[in-house]
Every structure is written in C-alpha cells, then in structure tokens.
Hints:
Elements (H helix, E strand, L loop, with lengths): L5 E5 L12 E8 L11 E5 L4 E2 L1 E8 L7 E10 L3 H4 L3 E5 L13 E5 L2 E5 L3 E6 L6 E8 L2 E4 L8 E6 L4 E3 L8 E7 L3 E11 L5 E12 L4 E9 L9 E9 L7 E5 L4 E4 L4 E8 L2 E6 L2 E6 L5 E6 L2 E7 L8 E6 L3 E7 L23 H10 L5 E2 L20 H14 L5 E2 L12 E11 L5 H12 L8 H7 L14 H21 L19 H8 L21 H12 L2 H16 L26
Parallel strand pairs: 29-30
Antiparallel strand pairs: 1-7, 2-6, 3-4, 3-7, 5-6, 8-9, 9-10, 10-11, 11-12, 13-14, 13-19, 15-16, 16-17, 17-18, 18-31, 19-28, 20-21, 20-25, 22-23, 22-27, 23-24, 25-26, 26-31, 27-28
Helix pairs in contact: 8-9
Amino acid sequence: MSSNVKRVPLLFDCPAVASDQPVHLTQGVPFADGELPAGTPVQISDGQGQVYPTQAQPLATWAADGQFVRWLLIDSLLPGDFGQQGHELFVEYGQSVEPPAPATPVQVSREDSHICLDTGQLQVDLRTNDPDFWAGLSVRNEGCWQNLIRTRPGPYLYMSDQHGNCYNSWRAAPAPRIEIEDNGPVRASVCIRGYLASSDSRRFCPFVLRLHVWAGCTDLRLFHTFIFDQDPDAIELSSIGLILPMELGDGLRVAFGGEEEVHWAKTWQQAQLLHTSDQAYHITLDHKDFAKGMQATGWASLSGPTGSITVAMRDMWQEFPKGIHVDQQGTVDLQIWPEHYEEPLRLETPWKEEPIRAQTADELLKKLEENPTAGVNFKGFLGDIDRESLPSLAEGNRESLEQARAFANKHLQDRRVTWGDTGTGKPAGLAKTHEIWLDFRSEPATDEQAEAWNSLVQTPPLAPPDPDYTCATEALRICHPYDPDRFPEVEEGLEAMFDELLAGPIHEQRLYGMIDYGDLVNGHGRLHGLVYLMFKDDPETKITDLIGWMNNEANDECENIWLMYARTGQRKYWQVAEAYSEHLEDVDTIHAHPTDPEAVGLIHYHNMLHWS
C-alpha cells in the first residue's frame, strides 16, 4: 500500500456461506472534518492486499460548500465465500487509489421510451410511456440474451378491496414516472412511482417500486411500497401483491425453503406457501396439505428447462401474513397480504371516542354512567392511595395499578381499557415497504444455491467501521466507543436496557406482523414498566393495547439505537434500528391524505395503534 493511501478498518459481519453470487456490500462510512476531500478515489481491500470493485457516493458533507465528506456510501462486490474466509476488510482512500472496474460494469441506458439496466448477465427493460412498464427481463445464456418473462402484461402490482374490486398497475393512466437514482458501475437503481387503477380506470393507491442491480450479477433487489390514501372507514384491503409472469418452459419444479428442510415437488399444478403468523406456515400442492412448520426461511424457486427464478421475501415471518403462490404456467404471485389469509387488512381505529380518565373509583363510575360506550384510560388513576403523603405519584403506584385492574375486571368487561395515551386518529396516508429479492437464471436453480443466496438476503453483510474510528470522527457528535473495561457498570446497564426494555418485549410478547413489526413498546411513562410486568405473562393480553407503541417519541429512541450500533458494531443493534427506522418512515408518517393535504409529511406520536 502506498504511503499516501489511508485506510479505515471495517468489522466485516457476513453469514459463513458459499454463494455462487458475489456478496453485495453496501456500507456507510464517516470521515472527520477535513479528512476526505470530495472526489477522492476510494476502494475496498482485504488484509491480503486484494482490491475489489468499489463505488462511492457522498451522503453528507461537513459544510454547505461540499468540500469535505462527512458520510460516504460505499458499494462493493466480494467473492461469494468471503464470509467463510475470515479476511480483514478496509476502506482505502487517496489520490493514488485506483479501484478496479467490475469485469462487466452496470450499464444504464435511456433511449426514446425505454430505460435498460444491463449487468452483463441480466437485462431489465422498462417502458417509460406505458402503464405496463416492465417490457422485458433477460439473462445471458452462452453469449446470447434469453428472455424469461411474458409480456402484455408483464410483471405488475395489484390490490383488491373487501368489495371484490381489483386494481393493478398496468391499467393505470398516466404511465408511472421512472427515474434513474444510481448509475453504476457496481450498482445501479431506478425508482418507479405510479398508481393502481381498476378496469374502469378508477385510480387507487399510489405505489413506489425501486429496483437495484449489481455488476455481473443475475439477482435483483426490489423495494415495494404501497401508500394507503383511501378512507379507512370505507376500504379494507383483501389482497396486496406482485405478479411475475415467467417463461421457463414446461414441467416446472417448485421448491420452498422450510424451517428444517427444503420442500419440493415435480408433479403439481399449483403450489403455495402461506405464513399465517410468526410461528406458523403451511404449504399446499393443488389445494392439498403438503408441509408445515413454524418459521419458513422466506424463499421459493421455480425451475424449468429454459430457466429459473428464485424469490426471497426478507423478514417473511416477522412481517406475516405473507404468501408465495406459483403455477405450472410459470406465474409467480408474491403475496404481501395474501387473499387466502383469514381476514382482510383493516386499517381501523377502535378508539372511536376519547377515553374516560379519572383519579378515583367513584369518579370513574360516575363518568361511565355519563359515557355509556367510551373506553377507559387508567393513566392518572390513583384509587384510594393517600395523595397527601405521596404527592409525587401523580400517575399512581403498584397499589393503584392493582386497584385499576380489579376495577376493570368488575366493571369494564365490555369496554376498551388502556394505561397509555391514545386518541381517535386514523391511518390515512400510511405506507409500508417490503424488501424482495429475485434471482434469474438460464438454468435450473439448485436448492443449495437458493439456501446460500437467501442467507445473504435475510442476514445481509455488514461492515461498519471500527467503533474507535467512528467515534473519533465526531460525525456523530460526541459519542464514546464501547468500553466495558473502563465503564463496566455503564456498559452493562446500557446493554440490559436494550435487551430487557427494547428488544425483550418484542420477543416475549411476539410483537410481529406486517404493520406492527419494527415499532417498540412505549416505555416513557413511570408506571409503564409496572404495567408490563403485571400483564406480560397473560396470553390474552397484548401489551401494546395497554401502554401503546413508541412511534416517534420525542426522546428519539431510534437515534439512540443507531448510536449503540455505531459505538459497538454489534448486529443486534442494527437489526432493531433498521426495522424501527423503516417503521417510522412508513407506518408512522402520513404520506398522502384523501381530504387534508396539509397533513402530508406529519408524523404520529406515541399511541395505541400507531396512528390512534
């Protein structure tokens, strides 16, 4: 390494699998003020001096003049077995750095009414003037391009409501807007924004679809976002999904990644994997039971004589219900909300009236008579504890909690009860993003290939900088790296707070599901911990019905968890921070509104049902 080249050590964390696809590494790296001038060449290397194709993009600079980079986004491609090798990894930078180009750099071309993404092994052709925007998808086969999808319509998004109305993306007008967001050479991406529509051209919910490709690779990373801009009192969603009409030949083999084994078949007409909870999935072949388990690994493959597709739905069981349906014609239906789930997606607000609050049992009984249908909020209920001797207990204590519980069991069997803040807000404008990966091949996909590839999807490679370096840059302002030798009690306490107060309730209470996943239990109130201890072992009680979700609480728990990840480099913090960030950005933010445009961009504060 040249003396004028500087390096930043990275803590590489990747599943120890041998994938025949390169490892896609995308990582943010901070730099101190004045350290990295904008435009400085950057590369990824390992401890043996091997340098890998690298793409770098500034995300933030230290000043408005853009002269010095504060945060840099780095993309690189590593060997498919890199996680098994245990190599060190570094970011190197300096004017003499020359990162190698990929063997086949990503090419993005825009001509007339088409945008084409070409990785050298995969081509995605998109129409820019047609609602049926997906024009073609081809893989390289012995030097020639082989198309793998049927068209007119090509792949499309769909929704249906409880009245049987069906909406999809290829009927909508005008055509969606397609923008190139990243343009190689290692990674490229496009963003597609549009609406769904019915057969009689009635416009429905907006969607955002982002597609990412990598140099020399046959897989595609897809982010599917739907935005619910309808009246939640009138519309329920009975299905949400994405159709991929594949052209793979006859006699298709199907396989699903199961909990302990791969479930596969060669003789079948229709097959479906349906995840109905965080602890239950079942697979049917031709509407007959075929296999079942608790937590599927989230992938399925369809292989024929002319090609194959493997799909992976990230966090499948955590974001149940989910389904993957395929047929012998090659149609793949990625079911974000499966039509065959036991109930539609009801984005309702059960708190139709403001809840009653009172300090004493007599006061509460009187208000119940005056409000025959309203629910009760026990926040501030003191029962008969001595207020004069305990003036600081404005919200009560354990004794008052027990009195409130006894009161509820006696008087409130037919009313909603909570110990947390709530209101009567509605979820109009809610969004939800799903991460889906697709791998296309000109030959059948093996189960071993699918398993290894899916491991990298479900547990993506991470390479955070060494915490000592990250904290020293001051890109996160004042932040001290993890130091259990110097501060054993502080570090033990911080870790216990995370394990027991943030991550703990998620696992203990199984706080999963498509809308709930990612949010945290609201623990800002002094009594919330006692309420949790009182009810956490009750199988009939979901704790977030009593003390609510964190949502966008003002102490910014999301930033706190990201800081813990930055100062420790531990994946457990990243997992919770990533899921929480996505929930805040989607469910807790108003993205559209049917009647109040000024509400767009606002957030929901801590409450009982994310939006109530």
